[in-house]
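Box S1 | Example of a co-folding query
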Amino acid sequence: MKIAVFGAGYVGLVSGSCFSDMGNSVIIYDNDSEKINDLDRLKIPIYEPGLYDLIRKNHSEGRLQFTNNVKRAISESDLIFIAVGTPEGEDGSTDITQVIQAAEIIGRNLDKYKIIIIKSTVPVGTNESIKNIIKSNLTSEIPFDMVSNPEFLREGTAIRDFMLPDRIVLGSDSGKAFEIMTDLYQGIAHTENPIICTSIQNAEIIKYASNAMLSARISFMNQLVPLCEKYGADIKEISKGMGYDDRIGTKFLQAGIGFGGSCLHKDVSSLSYILKENGFDNSLIQSIIDINKKQKIFIVEKMLDKMKELEGAKIAIWGLSFKPDTDDIRESPSIDIISELLDYGATINVYDPQANNNMRQIFPEVNYFNDPYSCAAGCNAIVLVTEWSIFKNLEFKKILESMKDKFLFDGRNIYDKFDMNHLGFKYYGIGR
Ligand code: NAD
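Box S1 (continued) | Returned holo structure for nicotinamide-adenine-dinucleotide
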């Protein structure tokens, strides 16, 4: 099939390159010309495992192209995916300006029947309004169909998630569109990971409800943290004991320093906003965000309690990205933690395998290191923020010897507390 993808971000690049790898002809358009020029020279703007190889292969075999010529992208395609950003507005609502701009330009340049697919995460009702925007921009009576096809990939495992999705959700009111879209996804859908054909509104809400449910599980566990600490319980044991229940399961039950990333926070905020705007009770959904906000700085309160003084302390932050295997720092707890520690007058050393450069834009004043050892040397404390695998197998004796004080705050509970205390660290996890 001939596919155009609007937006060369995490979702657009991964979906576009995966579609091309499935044998389709894909052209990715972004209104950021610099990004497109870089991509054309195989300079990939994000770090995502496997993405460079996938892009290089399909680009060199002629199935994947990049353009800043929007007319060309539209005229050379039968399916147009909109995968532009939908950031959070100041009041928690979703800012759909980028989707509207894409829709206007698609409407003005539509030359024959096409299917326009919204992959960006958008509030319920958006597909309908985007349809009207496209209609009002048409230069002649050209038919088109809309499909809501929310994306569920996770950064760090995005290619695998796209190619082996748990489910593919398609929302439309057109039989023809369902048929074509089902054909497109046939290669990657199976009995256990089916294509769900449903209404547009259902598809829109499924995405928000899924992210809210995932976040709710994390906030639920985080709310139990102080209770576990007070009574000497271990939240990891609690998760384990709960997770064996089939109805509960083990995933997204880890307490820690809160969830980050571009999606969970903004999508839950958006759902909360929509409920409130409609005059409905949003208390459960809103509490997910409120708990998470507090949880992001809970570790700093713990540091203050254990270290007594943070002013003048030198703190090593291990990990900056919101999760391992990505360079994305959007909504990362590391931002809140660094910001709090700076306010307390601490000096900050940081190390992340991929995200140092992105964090430099936010905190030019902190010290950046290229490995965890030099980052920790001379520090009073280490804070493990992102559970990159590199942090799991280190020469901890060497690290201990190089530190001024021996505090280790494990924001992700990745270390064995007995081993770490035995080695000589003053180890503190979360909820244990
Ligand atoms: P992003 O910010 O990484 O990328 C968006 C891209 O769109 C940018 O390159 C930007 O230049 C481009 N753009 C903006 N306006 C444009 C326009 N009018 N025409 C063409 N290009 C335009 O965003 P992302 O993380 O890829 O997310 C995209 C959407 O997918 C969002 O709605 C997000 O909620 C959703 N989503 C993201 C993820 C994720 O893990 N990042 C997962 C699932 C869903």
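Residues 140 and 220 are 53 Å apart (CA to CA). Residues 6-12, 29-32, 35, 83-86, 98, 101-102, 120-121, 151, 153, 155, 262-263 surround nicotinamide-adenine-dinucleotide (CB under 6 Å).
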